[in-house]
User: Which sequence fits this backbone?
């Protein structure tokens, strides 16, 4: 047991290498979330400049936890540290909550908790879905509480607290947790020879505060009721073996490393779904949860309720539940040992690939921020991204995260669930397509005509030196009389003659 614990935590902390191995841990959406945490902090402080552009959402949204953690950290520490701390919390918190539950399910087989490793740097981490990443550790805490603790007195209150915090962390994970807790408590009572109603009632009462918030969220957000779209079924079936829930950036070698982490668990789980029902009531309960997770992944849409990329996250839920079902089912010991070894090998390779990618992206971010150094507090910055690398799409948000400047490319502040919202009169997206294209066409002066506030800086990232299209030529013509603050390497910074 002690050796398994030491190995587990050594491997868990190994997953912090991509986070702490460089100055910045760059993800797709992470820079924008970090910038919004800075904005949130400024709004709490009553900053007039920031309040000119942004406002707090009037309704308690289900995505507050991540921004609040980063905002509180930035009150006393720099932005790069806030970013590292929130991702570290998500990784180590998930490792702790997974092992805590897995050891309860398999006290004689604690080494099965090592199946947690691929989930520590999963798809949503690289995507920068910070709130979703934090929600997974709360999901496992809720499952542990429902399975292990008698729900009398403060037991039910503690589960209600976990589920309510989960609502304020991520709405989808809250709904998954509420459903799983209901199944666990229903069958736990049945296993004890009772009707199951007491357990189900406990689950419903614990989920009630979050359910009421969810109902109000849907009623007050029309965009939460948009039409849905699905990933083709053939693609979803392929994802079960190729590790789509772990792969986000698609760097060289990542697909194979992800498949090594996913295929053994999927194949072992498939075998247990056939033979595991005879292994007792504990196995049956967790196999039922795994089957429900699989059906959800295969049936539910990829885009719905105002959110996108749901299918990889649904797959992640299923893989989590399947790995826990493997731990709960005392069968196929030798294949399980082999699966754990292969999973660890694939995950170690995957982590090293992510560390290399993180280091490269951090170096580019440091270069970008060095070029943006002349931008001071109170600036209004129009960022124009020409990079073909989609990970660069939100890099300019680091400018907003590191100073009190209004950077006009902030797509998350337009989402209905965001705690931070653009003021409608200050929305910048009517001056061109710069927020949706890496060949932007813009009218720089139109922002002042629309809002009464002038752009003080234009920041070009990876603009081509040759073969400039008509849009870039038009932009450069508009900046002809601006002051060129920086113009070396991948970044060009222009300051309005009247800018700060």
Assistant:
């Amino acid at each position: 047991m002690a050796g398994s614990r030491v190995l587990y935590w050594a491997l868990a902390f190994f997953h912090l290498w991509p986070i702490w191995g460089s100055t910045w841990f760059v993800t797709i959406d992470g820079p924008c979330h970090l910038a919004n945490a800075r904005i949130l902090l400024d709004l709490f402080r009553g900053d007039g400049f920031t309040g000119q552009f942004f406002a707090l959402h009037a309704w308690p949204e289900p995505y507050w936890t991540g921004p609040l953690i980063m905002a509180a950290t930035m009150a006393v520490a720099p932005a790069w540290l806030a970013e590292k701390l929130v991702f570290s919390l998500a990784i180590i918190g998930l490792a702790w909550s997974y092992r805590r539950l897995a050891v309860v399910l398999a006290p004689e087989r604690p080494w099965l908790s090592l199946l947690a490793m691929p989930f520590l740097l999963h798809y949503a981490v690289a995507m920068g879905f910070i709130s979703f990443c934090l929600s997974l550790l709360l999901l496992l805490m809720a499952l542990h509480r429902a399975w292990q603790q008698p729900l009398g007195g403060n037991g039910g209150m503690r589960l209600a607290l976990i589920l309510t915090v989960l609502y304020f962390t991520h709405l989808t994970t809250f709904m998954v947790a509420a459903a799983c807790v209901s199944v666990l408590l229903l069958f736990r009572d049945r296993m004890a020879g009772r009707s199951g109603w007491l357990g189900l009632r406990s689950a419903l009462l614990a989920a009630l505060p979050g359910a009421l918030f969810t109902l109000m969220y849907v009623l007050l957000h029309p965009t939460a009721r948009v039409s849905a779209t699905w990933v083709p079924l053939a693609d979803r079936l392929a994802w079960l073996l190729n590790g789509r829930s772990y792969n986000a950036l698609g760097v060289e070698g990542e697909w194979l490393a992800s498949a090594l982490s996913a295929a053994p668990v999927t194949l072992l789980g498939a075998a247990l779904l056939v033979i595991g029902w005879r292994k007792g009531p504990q196995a049956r309960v967790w196999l039922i949860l795994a089957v429900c997770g699989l059906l959800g992944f295969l049936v539910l849409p990829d885009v719905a309720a105002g959110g996108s990329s749901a299918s990889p996250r649904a797959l992640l839920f299923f893989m989590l539940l399947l790995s826990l079902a493997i731990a709960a089912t005392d069968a196929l010991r030798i294949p399980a040992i082999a699966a754990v070894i292969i999973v660890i090998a694939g995950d170690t390779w995957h982590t090293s690939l992510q560390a290399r990618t993180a280091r490269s992206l951090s170096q580019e971010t440091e270069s970008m921020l060095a070029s943006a150094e002349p931008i001071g507090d109170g600036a209004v910055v129009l960022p124009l991204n020409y990079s073909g690398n989609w990970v660069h799409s939100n890099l300019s948000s680091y400018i907003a995260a590191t100073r009190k400047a209004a950077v006009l490319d902030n797509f998350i502040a337009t989402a209905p669930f965001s705690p931070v919202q653009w003021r409608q009169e200050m929305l910048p997206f009517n001056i061109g397509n710069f927020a949706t294209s890496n060949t932007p066409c813009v009218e720089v002066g139109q922002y002042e005509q629309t809002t009464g506030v002038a752009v003080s800086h234009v920041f070009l990232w990876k603009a081509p030196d040759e073969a400039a299209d008509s849009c870039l030529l038009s932009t450069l013509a508009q900046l002809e009389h601006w002051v060129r603050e920086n113009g070396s390497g991948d970044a060009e910074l222009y300051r309005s003659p009247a800018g700060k």
The mean pLDDT is 91. The longest helix spans residues 333-371. The first strand starts at residue 54 and ends at 56.
